[in-house]
Write a structure and sequence with these properties.
heterodimer, A: 97 residues, mainly alpha, B: 566 residues, 77% helix, 0% strand, globular
């Protein structure tokens, strides 16, 4: 299996695992962590962001998590569509030869 | 009115069956609309919102035009099941967003925020993250290995017959459960909004759904979903801005006034009223994070784009739309607490909302934009149900035609025309089954079905799909065992859980304490798939393990034969 030994293929697999799986692990941890805090120590999420405000840390964090996941998917797509696609195409050409 | 020669030719080419179904399904709505107009002309207190009826009819006409256009473009099984792989990333992203922004998302989430305040944010955030997880764990390999259904990935190196049968069973069970919940919801909603009898409402929804799917296939389903996604986002944005304007666009004021409205004296951002123990919290998180990655009608959408690059783009568009939608509906729900609790005509004598908390968004639309916006919003909610059930019917039809007919009964030897014909017949049959289920389950509590769908998708499909793509050791025996374990165990846990054991059967406490028992079912599916695989010492299992390298290469770089075709 020549392709599997190809350094570019190994690089592709390594980059994809590092970025994709890294992002998935990060999102799982922050979401499961926040929901667990929500259940165990709700007072932590009820802290207001500044004195006299009604907006709490929990409200900010939850909305932030949504937009962090958008940022991550956007960054990953930009990275993958530029860097990984170039690698994929060159490997595909080599595979078909 | 005179028709042009081209129009006359088009009329001659028009399918008589299509015309008949258009007549049958539009008849009750048109009759009601006509009746509504007559009533409205006789009295000012007509029970029907004419704006809703006309917005809905406009949507139906637009989507039927799309269906006619799509039916002319649909010539092969690839066109029918995957829109020929010609949908762009942005279009697919909008259609996918439409799949996630269901009627239960808009009505349920606003209602949840109205009832539980902060905890609604946990649910809406979970939905956004679930889509992002599809990107990071599934989408590229799925697109690179599959053609029409997720079982293509399983069947790449495993035995075709057993894995396709199990994947088809799982797809059909999930789709039919989801369809039943949607049809019952659609019937009840349309009955309330348009004053159409329940059975007419279910039949209208079902017939329109059959029309879109049977004639227009994936192309029509995608464009119906895009149209609805744009309408729903616009309607929600109007509602959100309307609510914010009531508080001078000050979020701080909105939250403090909503908290002041509560009798308990607590802040609306107090967590823990919906999810209040860590185990349930993690179980719920797992359902939201991994459920979407196992939903057949969602996975199927990634085969409509030409390559993995466009598939990635579509996820970004979906996450953007759903994140904005989630933020808007959770804040709208918090605003509803103040706005609706001050309006006695929306409340029962005990202070609860008329029609239940799920009607919060509907009442709010009337409060913000009057009868006209109520009509528009109600019609959009119905359009939402229509678009989602169409996607579900198509995924069930693809399981029958592609997995069962082509690969199990004909062992891959059916012609393209045969597959297309079977797909259309399957969508007709599934559509009629959905109507029947909608009628049978009238008035039943179908909340358990929605929980069941997410649990089954996360437990039956996701583990085997993930293992098939990433673990060399998975064998046919492991995949079949894992999928069936997830499916059956999810069914048992939901039956013994709070939604069925307590709410439906009336026992005092559930035997399984979780509404979403994914904390038990996902690990069980993984463990059983692993156990059945490692104990499989057959020759075929060894061959399957050896084939992993070939599959792994294709999953990373794409299949050259499929890439060159598109």
């Amino acid at each position: 299996m020549k392709t599997i030994e190809n350094p570019d293929f190994k690089k592709l697999v390594k980059l994809r695992r590092l970025t994709g799986w890294g992002a998935a692990t990060f999102l799982t941890l922050i979401f499961a962590g926040t929901t667990a805090i929500n259940a165990v120590a709700p007072s932590l999420l009820m802290t207001v962001i500044y004195p006299g405000s009604s907006i709490t840390v929990g409200f900010v964090v939850m909305n932030l998590v949504s937009f962090v996941s958008l940022g991550l998917t956007f960054s990953y797509t930009k990275f993958a569509n530029n860097q990984l696609t170039t690698l994929e195409e060159s490997l595909r050409k080599e595979y078909m030869r | 009115m005179k028709l042009s020669p081209a129009a006359l030719t088009n009329c001659k080419n028009f399918n008589p069956v299509l015309l008949f179904i258009i007549f049958v399904c539009l008849h009750p709505v048109c009759a009601e609309a006509a009746e509504a107009t007559q009533i409205a002309s006789r009295t000012d207190t007509a029970g029907i919102n004419v704006a809703a009826v006309f917005t809905f009819i406009a949507f139906v006409i637009l989507t039927l035009v799309i269906t006619v256009y799509a039916s002319r473009k649909t010539r092969s099984a690839s066109d029918y099941l995957a829109a020929g792989g010609r949908i762009s990333g942005v279009q697919n992203g909008l259609a996918l967003a439409g799949d996630f922004m269901s009627a239960s998302a808009i009505l349920g989430s606003v209602g949840l925020a109205y009832l539980h305040g902060f905890d609604a944010l946990v649910v809406t955030t979970g939905a956004v993250l679930g889509i992002a997880m599809i990107m990071f764990l599934i989408v590229e390999r799925l697109r690179n290995l599959g053609q029409y259904t997720f079982s293509d990935v399983l069947a790449f190196r495993l035995k075709q017959r057993p894995v396709r049968i199990v994947a088809a069973i799982s797809t059909l069970v999930i789709s039919l459960c989801y369809l039943t919940a949607q049809m019952v919801g659609a019937g009840a909603l349309v009955e309330a909004l348009f004053r159409i009898p329940y059975h007419y409402a279910v039949a209208t929804t079902g017939c329109l759904m059959i029309l879109y799917v049977a004639f227009g296939g994936m192309l029509a389903t995608t464009w119906v979903q895009i149209t609805k996604a744009i309408l729903l986002l616009s309607g929600t944005a109007f509602l959100f801005l309307g609510v914010l304007s009531m508080f001078d666009f000050n979020l701080n004021t909105l939250i403090s006034e909503a908290s002041a409205t509560l009798d308990s004296g607590k802040s609306v951002l107090t967590p823990g009223s919906f999810v209040n123990d860590p185990v349930s919290a993690i179980s719920l998180s797992l359902a939201f994070l991994f459920g979407p990655a196992g939903l057949p009608h969602v996975l199927m959408r990634f085969f409509t784009v030409p390559d993995a690059k466009e598939a990635r783009r579509s996820v970004v568009v979906t996450v953007a739309c759903v994140a904005i939608f989630a933020t808007m509906i959770s804040i709208t729900g918090l605003g509803a607490i103040t706005l609706l609790k001050q309006q006695p005509h929306y409340l029962n004598s005990d202070g609860s909302l008329i029609g239940g908390s799920n009607m919060a968004a509907i009442h709010l639309s009337e409060f913000i934009g009057g009868e006209l916006f109520l009509g528009f919003f109600s019609a959009v909610v119905f359009a939402t149900i229509l678009a989602v059930v169409s996607g579900l019917t198509l995924s069930a039809a693809s399981a029958v035609s592609h997995d069962l007919f082509t690969h199990v009964f004909r062992q891959g030897k059916s012609s393209d025309a045969e597959q297309l014909k079977v797909s259309r017949v399957a969508s007709l049959v599934i559509g009629f089954i959905a109507i029947l289920l909608g009628l049978i389950f009238q008035g039943q509590n179908v909340g358990a079905l929605t929980a069941l769908v997410m649990t089954m998708a996360a437990s039956a499909n996701f583990p085997v799909l993930f293992l098939a793509m990433n673990w060399r050791g998975l064998t046919t025996r492991g995949a079949v065992t894992g999928c069936l374990t997830g499916l059956i165990f999810a069914l048992i846990c939901i039956a013994l859980g709070p939604l069925v054991w307590v709410d439906v059967l009336g026992f005092s406490s559930p035997l399984v304490p979780f509404t979403y028992p994914t904390l038990l079912t996902i690990p069980a599916a993984f463990i059983m798939a692993w156990l059945a695989s490692v104990t499989d010492t057959s020759t075929s299992a060894q061959l399957e393990r050896k084939s992993f390298d070939q599959q792994f290469i294709y999953s990373e770089i794409g299949q050259p034969n499929l890439i060159s075709k598109t």
